[in-house]
């Protein structure tokens, strides 16, 4: 009986712990080393789906980047800073204010045909639909006779005129 116990004890000691998975089998260790040393490729399901079909594999083009206009934006910013400095210097010295710089127009923005304001792509899509409805309501306002539509250009001229009056009164009142 002791002889059998010693054989089983020796066989347990001869088993080596696998460093990779923790199993204690003598025959398992070299197989385990071989498996864990291999790098597995990621499975490409698209490639497998397309096998056997006549669909050619099309590589996607990287999205085209818009040309950056940072230099123009920087120049606009610098000119706005200089104009603000001139205005504050004129206010301190009591001189008349210089005319405001012309507004810079961002070429990436889309102009609304109804109110002439400019928006980025997503905001323009929402705004133009809204402004179209508002222009239709404005054109048939109850104060007008005969349902004659109001001119959009008249509205635009009014807004420009009102904004220049506001700006001129703002600069005159601050001195």
How would you summarize this macromolecular structure in one to three sentences?
The protein has 175 residues and is mainly alpha-helical. Helix content is 54%, strand content 2%. Strand 1 (110-111) and strand 2 form a beta hairpin.
Describe the strand arrangement of the main beta sheet, using strand numbers: 1-2
Report the count of strand segments. Answer: 2
Distance, first to last CA: 114 Å
Mean model confidence by pLDDT: 75
**Secondary-structure class:** mainly alpha
Q: Tell me, what's the shape? A: elongated
Q: Which ranges are low-confidence, i.e. pLDDT below 50, for 5 or more consecutive residues?
A: none
Strand content: under 5%
Q: What's the quaternary structure here? A: single chain
Count the DSSP helices: 6
- Write the H/E string, N to C: HHHHEEHH
Largest sheet: 2 strands, antiparallel
Radius of gyration: 39 Å
Helix share, percent: 40-55%
């Amino acid at each position: 009986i002791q002889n059998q116990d010693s054989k089983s004890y020796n066989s347990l000691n001869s088993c080596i712990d696998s460093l990779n998975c923790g199993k204690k089998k003598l025959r398992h260790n070299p197989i385990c080393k071989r498996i864990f040393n291999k790098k597995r490729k990621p499975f490409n399901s698209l490639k497998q789906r397309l096998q056997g079909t006549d669909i050619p594999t099309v590589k996607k083009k990287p999205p085209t980047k818009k040309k950056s206009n940072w230099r123009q934006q920087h120049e606009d910013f610098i000119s706005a800073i200089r104009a603000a400095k001139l205005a504050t210097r004129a206010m301190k010295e009591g001189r008349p204010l210089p005319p405001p710089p012309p507004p810079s127009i961002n070429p990436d923005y889309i102009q609304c045909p109804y109110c002439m304001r400019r928006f980025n792509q997503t905001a323009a899509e929402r705004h133009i639909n809204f402004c179209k409805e508002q222009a239709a309501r404005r054109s048939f306002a109850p104060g007008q006779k005969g349902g004659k539509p109001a001119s959009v250009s008249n509205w635009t001229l009014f807004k420009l005129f009102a904004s220049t009056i506001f700006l001129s009164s703002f600069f005159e009142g601050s001195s």
